[in-house]
Write a structure and sequence with these properties.
Largest sheet: 2 strands, antiparallel
Mean pLDDT: 82
Strand content: under 5%
CATH architecture of the domain at 255-408: Up-down Bundle
CATH superfamily of the domain at 255-408: Outer membrane efflux proteins (OEP)
Radius of gyration: 35 Å
Strand order of the largest sheet: 1-4
Helix content: over 70%
Structural class: mainly alpha
CATH class of the domain at 255-408: Mainly Alpha
Number of helices: 10
Shape: elongated
CATH topology of the domain at 255-408: Outer membrane efflux proteins (OEP)
Order of helices and strands: EEHHHHHEEHHHHH
Distance between the termini: 38 Å
């Protein structure tokens, strides 16, 4: 039972077995990060994204919306290409009809003029159709961009939420194992109380009072209920049935020394480059600038309203950048506070671990009783469970920091 900071284990693996639901009620652990052909779904931090993309209904809906938007864009693009071809063809007809009219004599001039008029009419209709097709293409392109952004952001948010559910469930497993150990320890104490009462060393009231203060069984039952509920929540987040054959990987290790090496200024630059909201604000400015340029080329003037729109777009971009930077700084502070808290409690855990080892050694040589060993182990396990919970919280904060740096 070893605790390390350089390679922090999020769950005390020596005291946890992952609860695994299958048809036989078996319990097991597995490090594989993907589902296999034996119909067992293997859940780990690495496999959560793939499992959700395949099974989560919300993500499937987002994916369908994205596919619809992409197909609409392709259709609009084809329609725009067809409209361009129609304009080119109509322009060619006008050119041909013009040449025919110019070469016509008195007997063919009327017919040639009619042909040219019809061709010019077709060209005008084709140009009108092209304008409509270009608007439809622009609309479809914007909707595709929005659908892509909704999909990317939606997946990131839901995966992060599921990762939180996953770590919560693993903490439940650790707590439940600790409660079970506490129940066993208290059962031994109750036997002692019974002997003391029967031997006349304590009164009946004292005996009953001691029994009533023992809430370990109720705590264990409540923890079991919490574990089962959180397991159901996790399965729902993943998009799979709790009745499926599932194994949960509890062997989660992360070198949190990388946190101490974080360069906030570098990460801030990456975040501002990657942030989805900032990218969308920049796209709006680019689109508006293109519209202003097109209008200027056509009329040799710029509408004052367009300048106000551009000013608002610039303001929106600055607001998005300020909001993103503030949120990122808050998450950085949360992460570092969590990391520093872990470091400050690490020495205490190491000391308690050594004390437990010392008691165990004394027992091996006959200088300590089994009860003393059990008491020392239970005391260490309780504090270690609290330490593990703090590590899980640290990892959640780290996941969120990385997610924000990637732009979500």
């Amino acid at each position: 039972m070893t605790v390390t900071l350089a390679n922090v284990s999020l769950v005390n693996i020596s005291s946890v077995q992952a609860a695994t639901t299958d048809n036989t009620g078996a319990t097991s652990t597995d490090n594989t990060s993907a589902a296999t052909t034996d119909s067992t779904i293997k859940v780990s931090l690495e496999s959560i994204r793939d499992i959700m993309i395949e099974n989560n209904l919300d993500i499937k809906s987002l994916d369908n919306n994205l596919k619809i938007a992409r197909q609409n864009y392709e259709d609009a693009k084809d329609a725009n290409d067809s409209a361009n071809s129609a304009v080119t063809s109509a322009q060619s007809d006008v050119t041909s009809a013009t040449a025919t009219k110019n070469a016509a004599d008195a007997t063919t001039l009327a017919a040639a003029t009619t042909t040219l008029t019809n061709a010019e009419g077709h060209l005008s209709d084709a140009k009108d159709a092209l304008v409509g097709a270009e608007k439809d293409l622009t609309t479809a392109k914007d909707k595709l961009k929005s659908a892509q952004s909704s999909y990317d952001t939606g997946v990131e948010d839901k995966v992060y939420a599921a990762q939180q559910e996953y770590l919560t469930y693993l903490s439940d497993l650790s707590t439940q194992k600790l409660n079970q150990d506490t129940v066993k320890s208290n059962e031994k104490e109750e036997q002692v109380y019974k002997l003391q009462y029967e031997s006349g060393f304590i009164s009946k009231n004292d005996y009953i009072d001691k029994l009533q203060k023992n809430t370990a069984v109720n705590d264990s039952n409540a923890a079991k209920d919490t574990e089962e509920l959180d397991r159901t929540k996790l399965c729902n987040a993943l998009g799979i049935s709790p009745e499926e054959n599932i194994t949960f990987n509890t062997d989660i290790n992360e070198d949190f020394q990388v946190i101490s090496k974080i360069n906030y200024d570098d990460d801030l630059k990456q975040m501002l480059d990657n942030n989805v909201s900032i990218k969308l604000a920049n796209d709006d400015i680019t689109t508006l600038n293109d519209e202003i340029d097109a209008e200027t080329n056509t009329t040799d003037s710029t509408d004052t309203i367009d300048n106000y729109k551009k000013d608002n777009a610039d303001i929106s971009l600055k607001q998005q950048m300020n909001t993103a930077e503030t949120s990122f700084k808050e998450q950085y502070n949360t992460l570092m506070n969590s990391y520093n808290s872990i470091k400050s409690s690490y020495d205490k855990i190491i000391q308690e671990q050594e004390e437990y080892k010392t008691t165990q050694t004394k027992y091996d040589y006959g200088f300590a009783s089994q009860d003393e060993v059990d008491t020392a182990k239970l005391a260490f396990d309780k504090d270690n469970a609290t330490f593990n919970a703090s590590k899980n919280k640290l990892y959640v904060n780290y996941l969120r920091y990385i997610q924000m740096k990637e732009g979500y």
